[in-house]
Design goal:
The complex is a heterodimer of chains A (about 350) and B (about 475). By secondary structure, chain A is α+β, with helices and mostly antiparallel strands. Chain A has helices spanning about 25, 30-35, 45-55, 100-120, 135-145, 170-175, 180-190, 205-215, 225-235, 280-295, 315-320, 340-355; strands at about 10-15, 15-20, 55-65, 70-75, 85-90, 120-125, 150, 160-165, 195, 240-245, 250-260, 265-270, 300, 325-330, 335. In chain A, strand 5, helix 4 (about 100-120) and strand 6 form a beta-alpha-beta unit. The longest helix of chain A has 19 residues, at about 100-120. Chain A is globular and about 65 Å long. With about 475 residues, chain B is α/β, with parallel strands linked by helices. Chain B has two domains: about 5-295, Rossmann fold, CATH 3.40.50.150; about 315-470, no CATH class. In chain B, helix 14 packs across helix 20, helix 14 packs across helix 21 (about 445-470) and helix 18 packs antiparallel against helix 19. In chain B, about 50% of the residues are buried. Classes of the chains: A alpha+beta (about 350), B alpha/beta (about 475). At the A-B interface, strand 5, strand 6, strand 7, helix 9 and helix 12 of A face strand 1, helix 14, helix 17, helix 18 and helix 20 of B.
């Protein structure tokens, strides 16, 4: 990574600096991004391409210690906003724990002129760093020092359920709950077939199952257009696959898995409400774990988990726990407000509506 | 120019083409769409300009299907087809050639890989007898530029006297206000407007609803012109009697046109109408049985309603005004308007569900800092508002907000809430949030939340929240 000749001014603090990456540098971003601990696919170049297709403005910012790149951040802003908008870095910034505080200070300074330019009133970060005791304290201190407060909304789930794929197949199976293992066998006995695909032609097949599940389970599902863009960009980059479980030619369950930084993330999925007795989703996830392991992944991430019976993830979480594994918590999204920008929007508003405030 | 994603679903029986995830055509019934878009306009034009060879401009339509139907008319001398997307045009030349009857190989067709707006801008006045607009459905304000008053004025300029514009529109069934907004924009541009609607099965299956089109011309048509439409042989779906039925609208539906704005670049309305149509649900069903009380515009030409909005619907100022009005009336009224949808992926249910996150959004704010920053920028504000902000800052600095706030201060706090909510919802992904400081991503009874907020509880709630947080 060379120093960028980007349009945005670089910032520095001691031996550390942050600057916008040129398009050429951004092309090499993934090499660095994948090597930073606790990296997240939403900070990858393929994900950035997908978000560009979705109409987002994407900015790559690189952090260096001296001349050495040590991390950075992919920032997303949606330009069509009316009034103040926000920057989001889901899964970011990517920074080694020891450089987190200085990285956050630099990031907030780097974004300030850009915020003014784009009318952005908040910078939302969401590092995917597990809240094990030590990093948790470090993170909390760094957030406090740099004026980040808990955001009202997370883009990533702040709790998840992980399977350690560094175990061998027998160990993985033994780590499952007996009911989970049994259901995998039930699916096999019924003759459920699993296949993986990164063919665009399978998008309608996947979406039919996903949309049916969203409708029945009453969650907010993304539309067809979203999946076309998502699959076309991530498949082309070799970063995602569909998994389908079928019986007698009928698809009973489908998943969309993203591969990034040694982790396979089950991002979307659904199941048909036919033939529930054959337990197709159990075999599908089991095969997806083995498939991910063959691809060199070290973790299978069920993406979203909650022990809270009032949380919408609770019913899905009981299913996920059948595969063994362990829960993980993240700090969640945090916002740094650019109060001047928000004040600008409000003063404009007061001017517009001053006659109606009495 | 933004890039588009193209996707083709193909099996032995049919082919379906999507741009940015929106169905453009399904070969099983595309004739129904393209023939209603093209044939009436061309047939009316050849009768009106009987002694002339026709020049036709197709804007969009890179799949070649509209061109195929224009080419059915031997009176057409030349077609200029302008589409900015070379990939779509390439499909038109290759994959779709069996469906468009190899239209791009016709000597009468010239393809221009260019943005339609700049092409029309550069075209000489009076260049075309017919302009066919076959654009993708708008997904953002930028896309909606081809439905502005200015766009229709530009088309009027390139028409010969008595020339005709035909344009695809939106679904009158799913978004009545958006449909009639296009009607008003055509009228405001000095053209007569003749709306049509048509059931297209693949569109209905995709959830788009009954589809709409407009014929427009600077010179009026009468009912006898419409009744005489009889295109040359070879078409698949078009029937004159169905066309006449397509021109009739349930009166209750057509009444909507009196209250909608036209679409202007600096005061855009169309996307807001498109994405916030749920309150029009009661109108959706009126197409199923409307035989008795209908209107059509060939017999009774319509006129622009003259509405010129100062605030764009869905803008922060417009939303904030809605909040102020609702808080004064103490009722949530048209709840969907309080948190308007601003992205095609969202629904009113999604944006309203953000009410559950509002307490966390407010908790994270440093109101003292915000009001301080507002005062630094307050030079342009009336003196009484500056005084109010000073009082508010003093109370915040003292650490407690008084429970009895003056009405104007209450209103300022309403504006703060509206601006903060608007900021959070400006990021489309946030609406699919996975939970957060505010709790879970489950759907809740959001109407009740907004009802309580607006029935006098909102500012008390905010004051209590702030004081408790302190």
């Amino acid at each position: 990574m060379n120093r960028a000749a980007g349009a945005l001014p670089a910032c520095s603090e001691g031996e550390f600096s942050i600057s916008q990456l040129s398009p050429g540098e951004a092309a090499h971003w993934d090499l660095l991004a994948e090597s930073v601990p606790h990296s997240c696919f939403m900070q990858s170049a393929p994900w950035a391409s997908f978000k560009k297709r979705e109409g987002y403005r994407v900015i790559f910012a690189g952090v260096r210690q001296g001349w050495n790149p040590v991390g950075g951040c992919v920032l997303y802003a949606y330009p069509a906003a009316r009034g103040a908008a926000l920057f989001a870095a889901p899964g970011g910034p990517l920074l080694p724990a020891e450089h987190l505080a200085v990285g956050l200070r630099l990031l907030t300074r780097f974004c300030a002129p850009l915020a003014e330019l784009l009318g952005v009133a908040s910078l939302r970060i969401e590092p995917a760093v597990p809240l094990a005791p030590q990093p948790g304290l470090l993170l909390a201190r760094a957030f406090d020092e740099t004026g980040f407060v808990r955001s009202p909304a997370d883009i990533l789930p702040c709790e998840s359920w992980l399977i350690d794929l560094e175990q061998d197949e027998v160990e993985l199976s033994e780590a499952m709950k007996p009911k989970g293992r049994y259901n995998v066998r039930v699916a096999r006995r019924h003759g459920v077939q699993v296949r993986f695909s990164s063919e665009e032609a399978d998008i309608p097949l996947f979406y039919r199952i996903f949309a049916e599940t969203a409708r029945r389970k009453r969650f907010f599902g993304e539309p067809y257009a979203f999946f076309i863009n998502l699959c076309q960009t991530l498949f082309a980059a070799g970063r995602a696959q569909f998994g389908f479980a079928s019986l007698d030619g009928e698809v009973l369950a489908a998943i969309f898995v993203v591969y990034w930084a040694g982790r396979a993330t089950y991002l979307y999925g659904g199941r048909s409400f036919q033939r529930g007795e054959v337990m197709a989703p159990y075999l599908l996830h089991w095969e997806a774990m083995l498939n991910a392991k063959r691809r060199g992944c070290r973790l299978y991430d069920f993406y979203g988990y909650s022990d809270n019976p009032r949380h919408s993830y609770f019913p899905f979480s009981r299913f996920k726990k059948q595969f063994g594994g362990y829960p993980v918590s993240y700090p969640g999204a945090h916002d740094h407000y650019y109060y001047g920008i928000l004040a600008d929007a409000l003063v404009d508003l007061l001017n517009n509506l001053s006659g109606e405030l009495a | 120019m933004k890039s588009s994603s193209l996707f083709v679903e193909q099996n032995k029986k049919r082919i379906a083409f999507y741009i940015d995830g929106d169905l453009q055509f399904d070969s099983s019934d595309e004739a129904s769409y393209h023939e209603y878009l093209v044939l009436p306009a061309l047939d009316l034009a050849r009768r009106r300009h009987a002694s002339e060879r026709l020049r036709v401009l197709i804007c969009g339509g890179g799949d070649g299907l509209a061109a195929r139907d224009v080419l059915r008319f031997p009176e057409v001398e030349r077609i200029d087809l302008v589409d900015y997307n070379p990939e779509v045009v390439n499909f038109g030349r290759t994959l779709f050639a069996p469906f468009n009857k190899d239209a791009f190989n016709s000597a009468r067709v010239t393809v221009h890989l260019q943005d339609a707006c700049s092409f029309v801008e550069g075209a000489a006045a009076g260049s075309y007898h017919v302009v066919v607009c076959d654009f993708t459905h708008p997904r953002c304000e930028q896309d909606a530029a081809v439905y502005t008053v200015g766009w229709f004025e530009a088309l009027r300029r390139v028409l010969v006297p008595g020339g005709i514009v035909t344009t695809n529109a939106t679904s009158p069934e799913r978004s009545p206000e958006a449909f009639w907004c296009i009607h008003q924009s055509i009228l405001a541009a000095g053209l007569r407007s003749y709306p049509l609607h048509r059931e297209i099965p693949s569109f209905s299956r995709a959830g788009y609803g009954r589809w709409g089109f407009f014929l427009a011309s600077p010179q009026p048509f009468g009912y006898q012109d419409a009744a005489a439409v009889d295109p040359p042989a070879g078409y698949v779906s078009f029937r004159t009697r169905d066309f006449l039925a397509a021109c009739r609208f349930p009166r209750r539906h057509a009444e909507v046109r009196h209250g909608v704005n036209c679409h202007l670049p600096d005061v855009p309305s169309l996307c807001h109408y498109l994405w916030n149509s749920e309150r029009d649900e009661d109108l959706c069903g009126c197409f199923s049985d409307f035989s008795r009380d209908t209107v059509e515009f060939f017999s009774a030409p319509d006129h622009w309603n003259g509405l010129l909005a100062k605030l764009s619907p869905g803008s922060l100022a417009h939303v904030a005004r809605g909040w102020l009005e609702a808080s004064r009336s103490g009722q949530s009224g048209h709840a969907p308007n309080l948190v308007p949808v601003r992205h095609p992926y969202h629904t009113t249910e999604m944006t309203n569900s953000w009410g559950a996150s509002l307490p966390e959004a407010v908790k994270g704010l440093d109101l003292t800092e915000l009001v301080g920053q507002m005062l630094k920028r307050a030079k342009s504000l009336p003196a009484n508002l500056v005084d109010d902000l000073r009082k508010l800052l003093a109370a915040l600095q003292a650490g407690t907000l008084p429970k009895e706030l003056a009405p104007r201060l209450q209103n300022i706090l309403w504006l703060v809430l509206a601006a903060v909510l608007s900021m959070h919802l400006s990021h489309p992904d946030a609406v699919f949030a996975k939970g957060g400081g505010g709790g879970s991503s489950s759907n809740s009874d959001d109407t009740a939340f907004w009802g309580t907020m607006l029935a006098g509880g909102g500012i008390v709630w905010l004051v209590n929240l702030y004081n408790r947080n302190k």
